[in-house]
């Protein structure tokens, strides 16, 4: 792909290596608010009330970037994460007093793999009214109504040969998303798959899609790619909007079942959209699991894929917990089933939708588990549901703080004249073109 020289300088796009004098920048921000945008409330922004020591609270002034991460299918085919989001959205509506609050209103970035990628697409793609296409309740219903079209249909040889389930899923995604592309998402979105051409992960990214059509894909293709179970429907071939980038994709859960690390990497390295996010203390992360599968025996390729994916999810959780260290209690929340409880471990492979809903409700009511450095996991007093409610309160606090904040926590990118590989997509952005 050709590189276009960067000919336009945007003041909002502050390079990570460019050091701005803090006091000068603060004064400029105050002047900008007072004179360029007509702010007349001098009691808050008057230079006479400003002292250099006020800027010592830079992190609090810049705020925290709010990131949502959703695992692949897990034992519940995405239902646990969907039910978690329904509960969180209800909490946000009650605590904010806004009955029309959407999940996308309270997060600055989202990453989802497999079933999580479909949920991310449903909740963060812009609808006709300019709001998110689906509420959390509607997204849960979507998974319930279409589970057999998307995830592991009957084990019939005929179905596998004719790929009937794949065509049903593709028709479903086409009907749902139409011609929407990654550019039509409300916030930065990351949805991984595994590219068989390059033999490497490929992350669909809104940030890169806004740079050039070679990184922009239709949302219906993105959902088909991240959920293409290699054991049942095989790989799916897709091309970018301009036709130049070709991918032969299978399930994102193979290499990135828990996309939290990719999401954090993206936010910390994307200085264009998150100019003041410098380390994990500047991020609020909600990571949603989908239950741990119960394997009596490893007797199918699909079972192997699930074991690998869920094992990788736990490793990512452990690593993220280590990275957040002292700020973990407030900044990183992981919702996952409590595998210590035997009842939870008995989620069978032939479960019905009623079973999945019942089990997911039990998982939310369980006491939560947290990773402990070099000590595995521990059970904590709060239930998963209580942790969601507490995290919802933090999201609302951050939302309210931004109403009076001077520094921009997020500067969403809309257009750009030059290509850029700014994020986690650098693992495999140069897929084969033909």
UniProtKB/TrEMBL annotation:
Keywords from the UniProt entry: Hydrolase, Lipid degradation, Lipid metabolism
Gene Ontology terms for molecular function: hydrolase activity
Motif segment (DGA/G): 251-253
Enzyme class, first EC level, given as a word: hydrolase
GO biological process: lipid catabolic process
E.C. numbers: 3.1.1.-
PNPLA domain: residues covered: 69-264
Notes concerning its domains: The nitrogen atoms of the two glycine residues in the GGXR motif define the oxyanion hole, and stabilize the oxyanion that forms during the nucleophilic attack by the catalytic serine during substrate cleavage.
Family according to the record: Belongs to the patatin family.
Protein purpose: Lipolytic acyl hydrolase (LAH).
Protein name: Patatin
Organism from which the protein derives: Lupinus angustifolius (Narrow-leaved blue lupine)
Lineage of the species this protein comes from: Eukaryota, Viridiplantae, Streptophyta, Embryophyta, Tracheophyta
């Amino acid at each position: 792909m050709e590189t276009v020289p960067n000919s336009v300088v945007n003041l909002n796009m502050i390079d990570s290596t460019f050091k701005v004098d803090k006091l000068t920048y603060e004064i400029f921000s105050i002047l900008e608010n007072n004179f360029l945008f007509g702010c007349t409330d001098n009691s808050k922004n008057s230079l006479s009330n400003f002292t250099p020591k006020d800027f010592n609270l830079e992190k609090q002034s810049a705020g925290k970037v709010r990131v949502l991460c959703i695992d692949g299918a897990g034992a519940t085919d995405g239902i646990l994460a969907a039910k978690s989001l329904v509960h969180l959205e209800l909490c946000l509506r009650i605590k904010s007093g806004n009955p029309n609050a959407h999940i996308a209103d309270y997060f600055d970035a989202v990453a989802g793999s497999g079933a999580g990628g479909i949920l991310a697409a449903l909740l963060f793609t812009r609808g006709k009214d300019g709001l998110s296409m689906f509420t959390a309740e509607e997204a849960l219903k979507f998974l319930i109504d279409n589970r057999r079209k998307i995830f592991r249909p009957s084990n019939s040889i005929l179905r596998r040969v004719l790929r009937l389930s794949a065509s049903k899923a593709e028709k479903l995604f086409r009907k749902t998303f139409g011609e929407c592309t990654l550019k039509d998402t409300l916030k930065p979105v990351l949805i991984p798959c595994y590219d068989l051409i390059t033999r490497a992960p490929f992350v669909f990214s809104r940030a890169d899609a806004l740079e050039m059509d070679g990184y922009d894909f239709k949302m219906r293709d993105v959902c088909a790619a991240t959920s293409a179970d290699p054991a049942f429907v095989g790989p799916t071939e897709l091309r970018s909007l301009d036709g130049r980038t070709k991918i032969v994709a299978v399930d994102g859960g193979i290499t990135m079942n828990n996309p939290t690390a990719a999401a954090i990497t993206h936010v910390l390295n994307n200085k264009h959209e998150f100019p003041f996010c410098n380390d994990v203390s500047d991020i609020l992360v909600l990571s949603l699991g989908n239950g741990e599968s119960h394997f009596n025996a490893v007797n199918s390729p699909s079972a192997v894929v699930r074991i690998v994916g869920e094992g990788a999810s736990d490793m990512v959780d452990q690593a993220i917990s280590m990275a957040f260290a002292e700020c973990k209690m407030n900044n990183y929340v992981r919702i996952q089933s409590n595998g210590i409880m035997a009842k939870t471990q008995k989620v069978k492979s032939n479960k019905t939708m009623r079973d999945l809903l019942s089990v997911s409700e039990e998982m939310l009511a369980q006491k939560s588990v947290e990773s402990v450095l070099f000590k595995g996991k521990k059970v904590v007093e709060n239930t998963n549901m209580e942790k969601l409610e507490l995290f919802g309160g933090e999201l609302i606090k951050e939302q309210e703080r931004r109403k009076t904040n001077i520094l921009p926590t997020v500067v969403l990118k809309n257009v750009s004249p030059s290509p850029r590989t700014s994020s986690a997509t650098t693992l495999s952005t140069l897929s084969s073109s033909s």
